[in-house]
Every structure is written in structure tokens, then in C-alpha cells.
Amino acid sequence: MVNNDAKILIVEDDDTLLEMYNIKFKESELTVITAQDGLAALELAKKELPVVILLDVMMPKMDGFAVLTELQNDPQTKNIPVLMLSNLGQQDDVSKGKKLGAADYIVKASMTPTQVVEKVKAYLVRG
């Protein structure tokens, strides 16, 4: 059973993509909080303690890999599943994300927003 009250943090610097994901998650009756850069993402993650984080890699102020490292080093956030969400689909990027502790690595171009929502729901059921 999916917990619809659980907060999902979406970190994406592209306004259009952020809005598109926001709409898709809300259509699924999931609670979403958003950030558009790495520093805001860290702040929100620590304050709101979401159950899943969708994290873009290429962002202003702090990239997704640096944010992931910070999240993993903080006892408060280290157990939150982080799904890297990027157009960087090279094996090196995927490997780096997994090595740093990402629960999964989603290449934006290979999944529709609906598929991304379904993937996140699978993590909500596990948690």
C-alpha cells in the first residue's frame, strides 16, 4: 500500500520538467516538495525528511552528486532513497551515482513521467 502522505522531494532546475513531474505526482495523489538547486535541496531534505528524493545531476550551486554525498554523510538523511534523475546516461555517470549511494539512476529520456511516478511508488511501498 502506498502512503500518499509521504513527501517526495523533486530536485530539478528546469522549470518545465519540474512542473511536469509535479503535475504527474499530484495526479497520483502524492505529496510533492520541490527544489531547483542543490543547496535548496539539502535544506529541504533536512527540514522535511522526504521518503524519496528524485535528484537531478546537472544543477546550479551544487550538482546532484555533491548533494547525494552530503545526504549520505548526514545521519538524518542517509537512509532516504535517492533516485538520480538525469540526461547523463553514460555508464560512468550511472556507476558514480550508485557508488555514492543512489538507490537508482533514471535517464530522463528513457522514461516517461508516468513511468518515473510508478518507479517512485515502488519505493513508497517498500518503505
What is this entry, summarized?
The chain is an alpha/beta fold. The protein is built from 5 helices and 5 strands; from the N terminus they run E-H-E-H-E-H-E-H-E-H.
Characterization of this structure:
- By secondary structure, this protein is an alpha/beta fold.
- The chain has a single domain, classed as Response regulator (Rossmann fold, 3-Layer(aba) Sandwich), CATH 3.40.50.2300.
- Helices cover 45% and strands 19% of the residues.
- The protein has five helices and five strands.
- The protein has helices at 15-27, 38-48, 64-73, 91-99, 113-126; strands spanning 7-11, 31-35, 52-56, 82-86, 104-107.
- The protein has a five-stranded parallel beta sheet, sandwiched between helices.
- Strand 1, helix 1 and strand 2 form a beta-alpha-beta unit.
- The longest helix is centred in the C-terminal third of the chain and has 14 residues, at 113-126.
List keywords for this structure.
five-stranded parallel sheet; 19% strand; Rossmann fold; globular; 127 residues; alpha/beta
Strand order of the largest sheet: 2-1-3-4-5
Helix and strand pattern = EHEHEHEHEH
Helix content: 40-55%
Number of helices: 5
CATH class: Alpha Beta
β-strand percent reads: 15-25%
Total of domains? 1
For the biggest sheet, the summary is: 5 strands, parallel
Q: Say how many strands there are.
A: 5
Ends distance: 10 Å
Name the shape in a single word: globular
Content-based structural category: alpha/beta
The CATH architecture term is: 3-Layer(aba) Sandwich
Rounded to the nearest angstrom, the radius of gyration is 13 Å
What are the low-pLDDT stretches, counting only 5+ consecutive residues below 50? none
Report the average pLDDT across residues: 90
**Name of the CATH homologous superfamily:** Response regulator
CATH fold name: Rossmann fold
